[in-house]
Amino acid sequence: AEAAAEQLQLYRRDPEGWRGCRSTGEVAVSWRPSSEFAGNLYKGQGILPASPQNVWECIKPVAGGLRTKWDQNVKDFEVIEAISDTVSVCRTTTPSACMRIISPREFVDVVVMKQYEDGTMQSAATNVEHPLCPPQPNFVRGFNYPCGCFCIPVPG
Hints:
Blueprint: H1 2-13, E1 19-23, E2 27-33, E3 40-46, H2 52-59, H3 67-70, E4 76-82, E5 87-94, E6 105-115, E7 121-127, E8 140-141, E9 147-151
């Protein structure tokens, strides 16, 4: 989990190579080739008219959190094992897509939540196997490379 958090910090600090691919008035999505796997990294950014704490409540990875209510791509989120107050092993499921052509997915990740001195909040995760969460029938087991979210306070 700590390695995933550090990898996300490296992506955050390195502005090189990101190319814009989609943008609305609220969100800009960029991509760049990954140095870890044959594919691309994607980054979405936006500024919300809310306090960082209120935004964090909507995105933080906790069981019973708000993300399953607003994110159509997250069907369920459960904690398999709480390792500490900030680190846990979690299972996330996604619904089928494209008229059920794409099967539901499940992801098992080790997740860390951090808060930094400047008020930035971060969740970082990466794939892990856990004996209490073998692959479930009717789901395709997905694999996450280091991924996560930052909630960064901005002036005003």
